[in-house]
Structure formats: structure tokens, C-alpha cells
């Protein structure tokens, strides 16, 4: 029997955040979403507002007095999803990425330490060095190729330092390319939502480089379940765990799967070829073993669900 918890989800109005909030609410838990709405919108969490177990606080993880106030309300679990995630922006403005992703994480860790609150950190597969051949497991070398990934590596090590120094229960998750409903479909969004949006607008799909680069695409509800399972598993504490679909697909093949017309796929020069990852494929065997978790939604089904949502959202917004 899972104990009913009071859960703080930072960045809970964002794409993965709103699905994670839904997962906890659907399982009977009490959820506080803390989000500054800089990269997210209240629209994402509107459906939860009538739920008495849900509370939204507009605020920032850099606001120490606000965090102190929130943690005094007997939080049981902190799911930390709030982060700046734009690779190019991090190259142009490294200091704000350090501030939010490192200092913000430390602020939360300090409160978790004071109140003995379990801490689940959402990191990223972008911390890994590229692998031309094999699936990437948690032992794979890391390479912070941008200030964004550098800030996430720093946040991971900070979290682990609280685990080793203070015995704080900490779990670190490295999801691969997550996609699905509520993801942005502009350039900050994921490739699936960008491609679907262009298809529905009768525009060509733009592929950077030759399109042979591959991605491991995880449907967002599977990702939210991954976060949820990790929060309740004692064996996950002190661990770094990959969350991925476990299969990759070339961007060319993904584009064709979505648009079914080669004449609508346009290749352009990559504006940052040095940052392009040729192959992203997760080894998710650790998540299967420790959490008994595996993805349930196939890529075809996930694309269909996402396309239906984009269509209904477009109708709703007109």
C-alpha cells in the first residue's frame, strides 16, 4: 500500500511537469506545483484546479523565503523538474543557467535536508558523451558539451553530495527525448511536435543535416510513470537511472513516418553541427530491473495521440 504523500513539483506547469502532476493526483496524492511560468503556462494545469488535492504557487526556486514557507507545510517529497533547458541560449547566457539549474537546485536540497524530504532530480540524457554505436547506459562517459548540460551535471553531483553527506534520499533521472501532448511545437519543442505541427500546417518538415542522426523517443505519460515509480522505490535511492524507449529512429525515418511524402521533407545545413548528437539510444535495463518500469506506448501510438491533441488544441484556440 503506497502512503499518500504531499508532493512538491517544481516546474509542474511545464510539459513533463503537468503529466507528472497528473500521475501523482491520479494516484491520490496531494500536489503543490511551484512554477514561475517563464517557459510554461497555467493553461497546462487548468484541469487540475477543481481538485482539492492540487495547489498552484507562482514563484521561483531562487526565492529562498518562498521555499522556506512552502517546506514548512510538511512536504513529503520534492520532484525537481524546474530547469532552463535551451542549449543555444545556455551558450549565449551561461550565468542564468548556472543560477537557475545549480543554485536553484541547491536551494531545494537545503530545504529537503532541513525537513528530511526525499528529492527526485530530473536531469537529462544531454549530459552523456556521444556514442556512435551502442546504447547508452548509466556508466557511459559524460561530456558537458554546453553550459546547459554542465549545469545539469553540477546539479546531479550536488544532489549526490547531499545523499553521501547527509544521507538524504536522492534519486537522479536521465530521461531521453520525451514527446507528447502539451509539448511546445516551436523551436524549443521536441522534434515530434515540431514535425506534426508543420505537417498540420501543410508546411515542409525541416531536417537538420543529412537526417541520419537518431533519437530515442519516450512518450510523456511513460516518462511521468518513470518519475512516479522512482519516487516510491527504496532501491532507486542514491542511483542514476535512464528513462528511454530503448529503440532509436533516424530523423529521416521519423519525418517520413509523420508526413508519408519524401517531397515534403527538406534538408538544411545544421546551424551548430558541433552540437549535433549522431546517435541517441538509451539502455533502459536499469530502470526495468530497479523500478520494474518499461514504456507502454509505442512510437506509432504516441505520434497518433500527440497529433490528435495538437489538432484538438488548435481547434480549442481558434
Detailed description of the structure:
The protein is of the alpha/beta class and 318 residues long. Helix content is 40%, strand content 17%. The protein is built from ten helices and 13 strands. The strands form four sheets. It has a seven-stranded parallel beta sheet with strand order 3-2-1-4-5-6-11, sandwiched between helices. The chain has a two-stranded parallel ribbon with strand order 7-10. β1 (6-10), α1 (15-26) and β2 (30-35) form a beta-alpha-beta unit.
Main features:
single chain; 318 residues; alpha/beta; seven-stranded parallel beta sheet; two-stranded parallel ribbon; 10 helices; globular
Largest sheet: 7 strands, parallel
Radius of gyration: 19 Å
Structure class: alpha/beta
Name the average pLDDT. 94
Give the strand content: 15-25%
What is the structure about, briefly put?
The protein is α/β, with parallel strands linked by helices.
Topology of helices and strands:
Blueprint: E1 6-10, H1 15-26, E2 30-35, E3 54-58, H2 64-71, E4 77-80, H3 87-92, H4 94-115, E5 118-122, H5 147-166, E6 170-175, E7 177-179, H6 191-200, E8 205-208, E9 214-215, E10 217-219, H7 220-232, E11 240-243, E12 249-250, H8 251-259, E13 265-268, H9 285-291, H10 299-317
Parallel strand pairs: 1-2, 1-4, 2-3, 4-5, 5-6, 6-11, 7-10, 8-13
Antiparallel strand pairs: 9-12
Helix pairs in contact: 1-7, 2-4, 4-5, 6-8, 6-10
